[in-house]
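User: Last request for today: this protein with retinal, please.
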Amino acid sequence: MNTEKFTVSIEGFEIVNHILTLGYASMAAALLFFILTKNNAMPKYRMSSVISVVVMVSAFLLLFIQKESWSAAYAFNGQAYALKPGADLFTNGYRYLNWLIDVPMLLIQILFVAEIVGSDRVKYMTRFTVSGGLMIILGYIGQFYEPGRLNENIFWWAFWGIVSTAFFIYVLILITRVINDGKAHMEGSARAIFGAILPLFYVAWWLYPVAYAAPILMQFGVSYETTIVSQQVIYTIADIASKVIYGVMLTVTASMLSEKQGFATA
Ligand code: RET
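Assistant: Here's the final one, the structure of the complex with retinal:
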């Protein structure tokens, strides 16, 4: 096996370790935030905070494992970090399994703050879970063939990525509807903050397919190191935006809506 091409510089190796540590540290800090602020909102909104807590725990564990997987795959050879013979290869696979939990959770949590209830809530919950779940499972299959991996196969990687994107577009259509419906019965700053979730969502969620696609740059002469390091940086920014910032915006909206309805926090 030619492991030469899989070598990463000291800086590259450390940036990934640092960014993954930032990732799981943010999840731990935000976990406390969601627990401590849960009662600032009326009971009907609190499921949003409960779901954020679930998401934080699962993302914390995943990013911790991701960091361990990265450190364990390489060893310093006196000049750079080379693949360690006999060690497990670094894999993003754990991420996808974490998303399988977190994607339906994140999509469902907003329904409580948007006050979508009854059969509409059930309808959205089902559609979000099925389409979000398929989007992730198909991407999980595709990532095994990622360019740069030993068993790369650009055809299958692109094929599963494109099919997964079709479900992603459907999720974007549904979430746009949910946010617009929710906004319709809000006013003032609650409406402004809740409305700002839509652009956040579009930017943060698109970063995932961008990171999935990044390794194709190797076909155009970009190094293995640059693509793999930027992939981890993009994933971490996306994780913090789509889970932590999103959850905080929902929490703030819920407490503003509660206050308007006369709910006083102790
Ligand atoms: C994949 C495969 C390539 C095509 C597309 C993808 C979309 C992934 C998304 C993931 C979102 C994850 C979140 C996780 C939070 O915990 C699967 C990368 C479209 C949108 C929000």
